[in-house]
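Message: Study each token:
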Amino acid sequence: MTNPPPHESDAPRDLVGIGIGPFNLSLAALAHPLAELDTVFYEQRAGFDWHPGLLIDGATVQVPFLADLVTLADPVSRWSFLNYLKSRDRLFPFYFAERFHIQRAEYDSYCRWVAENLPGLRFSHQVDSVRWNPERDAFEVDFTGLGAEGKAETLGRTLTRNVVLGVGTAPHVPEPLRPLAEAPGVPVIHAADYLAHRDAFHAAGHVTVVGSGQSGAEVFLDLLRHRPSGRERLHWIGRSAAFAPMEYSKLGLEHFTPDYTRYFHALGEEVRDGLVTSQWQLHKGIDAETISAIHDELYRRSLHGGWPDAVLTPGVRVRTAGRVATTQVELHLDHEQQGTRSRLVTDAVVLATGYRERPLDRILAGLEPYLRLDSSARPRVDESYRLVLDPCVTGSVYVQNAELHTHGVGAPDLGLAAWRSATILNSLTGKETYPLPRRTAFTTFGLQERPRVPEAREAQVLTPLVDSGQ
């Protein structure tokens, strides 16, 4: 894709997006038909990619295909997944495949199709800072145009009335394993880089997977399927108390609705923080199909007697780690329930230890005097996904997937991408550009009266119970 010159017009834009992952790509797609909006989105990478190291054959997205970039806000959008299939003459094959959950590689291909055809995206542009200019009543966004090898070539600045941050998450490496993961030539990688090292890990003598979530399960299954029966030489460990299934009941999934997001946002900060840590199984468990596939593969390898040489141990924490001679890694393990310790020598380690929100400090350093923080020094975020700023700042800074502490488990969920993008655009335009449903769940979260839905039958309202002392 050819990028325009890095120096933008001096006239303030309506919106500048920073980062082009699925969430800001969703926002750009829904903003595209709004002729009244002047938008541009910057991304330092040369093109779109979505977790390329985890596009393992057969791995699926954990939300239905309707949770694409636009459909749940605008089902007739030209940027829908179904329209992508139509553009590739694949509607009938998809229809007969009867797949509600698509493969990750297909979701990545769909997003690439949108990114390659949607105007207003600037790849190879690194945003360096955002400042408020009271004289222009606009934000100044400074950026660097990058060359083919990622080297700085030009500097530029654009003015905008509003900003949206969609800088995504970064692979998390636990502190005890960081020196090994960062050392060149040491066979310790994050799962985000798994496919690039897959052949070497298939050939390694003994492999350990650390992390008991979906990524750890997918990597373990892929390794298991490519090891000889009886000589698997695999370990799979994780801190959670069990290799637990993700909560995927229909009512459980209502935690990923706008209704629950609004309920969560209205709770007190301390209550929200407690809920986030307790709800890990809503978004950090393993889907039942993957668990079943792992058990089936292990069972198949026991059909002729004996057990596969694979050890699966939950409830284990890596306390320290180091090198053994020049070719192996030694992990010192704690079993939290038993209170016991052990050591494990292995030839290679895959860290399926998840992702963390990228810190916004560098980009927002110029806005620090205007930011309003909570008691844990985190940015406060209002219901419309705007950072709470000093009233003297008349523009807005929106965030995508940086509001777990204020909006709950739905923040990183792809299923809420279109709804959040539409909410931001409605806030930006000051009107109901995208009409959104007022009710999205059968569950009533809390005891306060729900806003009445026009033309709907009046529902019985629960009233708080009074303690009778009995």
